[in-house]
Automatic annotation (TrEMBL):
Protein's name according to its UniProt entry: High mobility group box
SMART domains: HMG
GO function term, MF aspect, one: DNA-binding transcription activator activity, RNA polymerase II-specific
Ranges where the HMG box domain occurs: 1-67
Superkingdom, taxonomy of origin: Eukaryota
Keywords annotated in UniProt: DNA-binding, Nucleus, Transcription, Transcription regulation
Pfam families hit by this protein: HMG_box
DNA-binding region (UniProt annotation): 1-67
Gene Ontology biological process terms from the UniProt entry: cell differentiation
PANTHER family assigned: SEX-DETERMINING REGION Y PROTEIN (PTHR10270:SF161), SOX TRANSCRIPTION FACTOR (PTHR10270)
Species this chain originates from: Basidiobolus meristosporus CBS 931.73
Amino acid sequence: RPRNSFMIYRQNRRTEVVAMRPGINDSQVSVILGEMWRKEKEEVKMLYRDLANEEKRIHSLKYPNYKYQPKR
């Protein structure tokens, strides 16, 4: 499943947050990164949206019949 723009942002910025706050747990990292994402400039968000769209495009070429089916 291709990542959305926030998931790409989270993966790229996670080590930075962990370095600033050693011993922080993953849910706290997500809260901090969520706040950072909301404060990001629109140009930065657009960059990550473009990356997510490209990832989605490549995924659909590799797996043309893929349909997300949540496990509920």
